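Recap quiz, item 2
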Amino acid sequence: MPVTVECVPNFSEGRRKEVVDKIVYSIRSVPGIKVLDVEMDPDHNRSVVTFTGNKETVQEGAFRGARAARELIDLNKHKGQHPRMGALDVLPFVPMSGVTLQDCVEIAERVGARIAKELKIPVYLYEAAAKKPERKNLENVRRGEFEGLREAILMDESRFPDYGPRVLHPTAGATAVGARMPLIAFNVNLRTKDLGVAKQIAKKIRASSGGLPCVKALGFMLEKRGMVQVSMNLTDYTVTPISRAYEAIKMETDAAGVEIAEGEIIGLIPLDAVCDVASRFLKISNFTSNQVLERRIWG
Amino acid sequence: MPVTVECVPNFSEGRRKEVVDKIVYSIRSVPGIKVLDVEMDPDHNRSVVTFTGNKETVQEGAFRGARAARELIDLNKHKGQHPRMGALDVLPFVPMSGVTLQDCVEIAERVGARIAKELKIPVYLYEAAAKKPERKNLENVRRGEFEGLREAILMDESRFPDYGPRVLHPTAGATAVGARMPLIAFNVNLRTKDLGVAKQIAKKIRASSGGLPCVKALGFMLEKRGMVQVSMNLTDYTVTPISRAYEAIKMETDAAGVEIAEGEIIGLIPLDAVCDVASRFLKISNFTSNQVLERRIWG
């Protein structure tokens, strides 16, 4: 079985294509790395790169990206809508195949320590890699951004980095390095125009109001389609599977006398999550992605 | 998207490993071919090789396997339980990714014609590639086996081959070349010891007694587990999806007051079939295997 770790670095440059190209080139220079996607956002002045590798190559790719960003991006000159504190702003590692979230925590620690030591950039560990509970939430880590953190990191003990100097890098700022499960964007559209129903169901099922763990949910109006939507992010499908989220909504819509029009998966989804849906609905307790033919061919 | 065709040749040799190795080696000698599985069965004196390639390489691999079998296997000396008429006995092509059943029919025709012409072996087209309706069923094609077909092919017009000489190859016999959808072996186990229930449900849902198309089903007793089983082969999951077979059984078990204990997928299953299950149960009309992350990495 191939071991695959996904890495999704966010760089504070979304306008100068030649800069982003150079950073991506430096990541791609590691043999075995596959760059799956590069999204430049000029409004946010930010780019999101998605690449994969094994436990070793993904670390080297991430480090080379960090080094290139430090050379090419000066945060003193950076403007954009999205909050940021570093040239390489955030660096999450995501388990894909043959690797656990805990493995990704260890990868984050190793890469974070190397960035701090070799590039002299302070590093904060966040999400599953956080060593302080308040740093699980990226917003707490990035509060004040580059400009505000410049002072806070010097005096405020709660803002001292996990690795590296207690001073921002003059041009590259600081970097948040973390580990998380793959996100699944799953929506369920309801055959009603009553936005209240969607909002109520969203509130009932989301973790923040005591619903299902690892579920974020909001209610939206889909004007053109004359429907409402329960829009979800599943932050750990091994804790709350897609099928459980769907069935929780189904229970609520049944109670409300409303029909589910359709589900939607936005973007990509891990193979294991698809297999999980199939195994739960078909009651197959021991079905795994190893039984998927293409995995034998491609993997 | 990678184009993948699966090919599952059955060779009439399951005892002499050196012979099977040479045949597999000749298939593998085509760049791009992946041999996924080789199963030697000494009782049947037969080997089943599973390999994949694209539309071109799969043809070359199949032809080289046919040529090696013709050199190495003499059917006059072959004994085994399984019916057979050729050194390369059957050669089915199966659509996997980015390719249709119709594409596989054309591949079967091209490879069949080449085997007939270059190797002087009579070829019968069967299943989806059949040009005569009675040849859809392999049993009709192979009736009488090597020994019986030797005479029949000379005089019985209904046994004339689709391609090649109207006489068996003296040592390699004849070959059936075909195209079919991937088979899915799907079982549903019921929490009862009443075998009659399983047999009755199997009869109700199988195609041969007027049930769901492309479904073969039998009822079995699972002595050790104290349950009964509806054991199915789905011969085209695009006609009758796994989810529809499951729900048909669920309707019957509900009516009979019996509980479904579990489902089972035996062996491998195409990615598209897994995605189909997920999309149907979650009501996602436009979900495809292109949204599976690993497909981007591996494919």
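DSSP finds nine helices and eleven strands in chain B.
The radius of gyration of chain B is 21 Å.
End of item.
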